[in-house]
Amino acid sequence: QGTTTQNIGIDLDTTVNNNIISSNTMSTQGSTDNYGIYLASTGDRNTIVNNTVNTNGTPSNYGIYLTTSITNTQVRNNTVHAKGLTTDNAGIRMVLATNNNVSNNDIDTNGTNSNYGIQLFNTNQNNFVRNNVINVRATGTDNDGIVLSTTNSNNTIGNNNIVVRASGSGRGVRIYNSDNTTVSNNTVRNLGSGSDNYGMSI
Fold first, then answer.
1. For the segment 54-94, what is each residue's pLDDT rounded down to a tens digit?
2. Is the pTM of this model over 0.85?
3. Are 57 and 51 in contact (CB under 8 A)?
4. Pick from 66, 49, 195: which is nearest to 127 by CA?
5. What are the residues whose beta carbons fall under 8 Å from the beta carbon of 15, sequence distance 6 or more?
6. What is the dihedral of CA 178, 137, 103, 81, to 10 degrees?
């Protein structure tokens, strides 16, 4: 735990291949940018399985973060609590990631605005997001169970169980600026108390 920025539980950075991160329990807490597990800058065939991750700061808390040429990684059977006092909290966030499998995770997020269970942001391709249980709680706007945004393509979202409780706007599944997405057999409950609450938004 830290008191300032950039607090990371497990950090694999720059050419990280064939690693197994399994059965760990971690908690990170700081003013901003808290990561439970962080994989970045070219990684292939890593496995993240059976971990318990807690992040709790002000803004920008990410349970598991895959970014920049992370490929063929398995993210399975993890329990993730991404909680913050303000905005931008995500259970699992992927950026520039390809051919990854995110499945059977139990994810809980809590904050004000822009809280996401699973977020695919910016050029993610051919990923599978399946059989996850996602609970999103928030007091503000733009809170989504699963969100795909900004030039994603050919991703599959299936068999997820999603609950969104937001006093502002919220969506179970939100897709924008993304192509060729397959969404099937998801169970979504939107229990928001405000306006602009949808099961799915495209």
1. 998 888 999 999 999 999 999 999 999 998 888 899 999 99
2. yes
3. no
4. 66
5. 41, 42, 43
6. 130
